[in-house]
Amino acid sequence: MLFFMQNALADATWFITKWRTTTANENIIIPISSSYTYNYDIDCDNDVTFEQTGVTGNGTCTYASAGEHIINIKGDFPAIYINNSSMKDKILDVMQWGNIAWQSMKRAFAGASNLQVSATDSPNLSSVTDISNMFSGASSFNQDISSWDVSKVINMEITRL
Asked: What pLDDT, on a 0 to 100 scale, did the predictor assign at position 112?
């Protein structure tokens, strides 16, 4: 019940994801692309308090206990870049896209084999031209994307991992 109460407090503009840790004191690193400029805030424990503000690089959330964790992000966050990183098996769900003005989705969730997308909203792709390999290797990906506006996208290449 507490999960739903906390989640109900989330702002509709936030990018909300669920991650899994398997050991105590494990880090979740929010991987970014060095090609873009970032200035975002992170709520690591879904309590609507942003513990980290003005983040300009990879964000890090450390969890005392193993389990599933919801992370809220707001601000200028132009690209997530899982790209087969060590975080690829830890991201479980995109719960909400929010109003993030994405600039790229290239390899955003590449290799994220546990990723499902339960979000009922659509990402803002109005400035995105590249979604190549966005879900490459994301074998659990389950969302219908036919409602997404991909009118500016020119690269949708998919290669096998």
From this structure: 98
